User: What shape does this take?
Amino acid sequence: MNVRVEPERAGQVGQRQYHFLGVTLDEGTRSLCRGEETLPLGGRAFDLLLYLITNRKRIVSRAEVFRGVWGDVVLDQSNLNVQLAALRRLLGANIVQTVPRRGLRFGPELEDKSRAETGSIAVLRFEMIGQSEEIEWLADGIAEDLSTELARFRDLLVIARNSARTVPGGSAQDAAQALNARYLVTGTLRQAGGTLRLTVRLVDAGSGVKDWAETYDCAANARFEMVDEIVAALASAIGPQVWAAEARRLRREPPRNMSAHDLAQRAWAGLWPLEMTPDQRSRERAMDLAAQALNIDPSCALAHRTVAYAQFWTLYFGLADPRDAALMKGLTAAAEAIASDPLDHHAYRQKGLLHFLSSEPVAGMIDLRRAHALNPNCALTLSWLGLYEATHGNDTVAVSHARAALARSPLDPMRASLEVALAFTHFITADYPAACDAAFSAVQQRPQAATPYLILAIARIGAGELDGAKSAFEQLKTLAPEMTAARLKGAWLSPKEDYRRRAHTFLRVAAGLAPMAEAAALAPNRRP
Assistant: This one.
């Protein structure tokens, strides 16, 4: 359990806010809140809780508590017991620890108030090389718009631009400390003739290490449309890079006393490497962390979203028993995540994917399109949207969406997933050579993931490459035997009849259970 103390506010000397167990105790307003909800806490219970927090470094005797909270009023011990019981009912049994024959102590440990939040990022003012009012306007505009677009990623805590503008010069560590940010976006803008060159860097402020860098060129008389394209490309690239770095850090650092959000972040970070793999034990560990978070804060959106994400992949690999219960659990968790954070595009994406598993493609398309509208910079969401547009929506935009996802984030940590989505989209549209290329690229990047081998096996049959298909099938069977058996029995995840017929027949051919002639009959218009 962690407590975060915020600095004293101007005009309220000595009055602070304390954060613990998903709630905020405000000394100035004498309130206890969870999000927007004010919790029912009587005045005397508030005084008791505040007294214990401010004396949290030691055990205080009951006599001290009486003097500190009730002053000189003579009361029976039962008065203290009543207030302690009220606090424990409201905030849990561990909020106040009883030390036998010594006294009481506030349960949670104090969190370092200077610790930057997970995923906290600030976009600093870009350095201008050369003096030009046009360059200055463009640099400020890009930085301003980039902050806005990064905020669409609900896993990131974007420091307000008005704060980032006021940071004095110095090292990245100095700027990060001033802003309480873990990551910084810095850059330079220079003009050479009729061309502007923007160089942008993502820096881990704690280590000073550059995590990512890219250069963009545009015409010196760039219009708003061109600036928008640059900002979208930057946001699409930076958002996943920050969270991938955070996921690595969270998996590397030992766990400490954690709030609900800390637990949920660890759970979410633990799921990322599991995409397209049947590693259920690791997935269950992530779900256990999410359950711990929800036990502390039932409204934690990230924890609910994590449960939905885990349930989708559990169902995908045929590891859910009973299936209907897992599906309902996932859909309920996604709905709870959206109710807690209606702007979370990840939650809408997971809800949409779960709707497809429950044979509700109309609801699935609505949710996926909503996810993309909430964050058009998320390449992963765009790739899934392309795939399902091919099966249930507007197939004329399917391939372009899937390709655009890769173009938006060419160094995306989830690039293998983007390649798989593109491969399936090509397969659905019967472009088997293109499907093979994308699937093989995914295999090269994630050789221990199962899904790339599935699409590679059926795509190679479509392209007439029997030996290569058999090799991919053997890898698939080794990595995901349950899923392989389910697909061979006809358990495909799309109700689109043409896709199911081709995918099922091609996989049976790759497995040696059907002759190549059956596949050839279904792919008469094979593209060169």
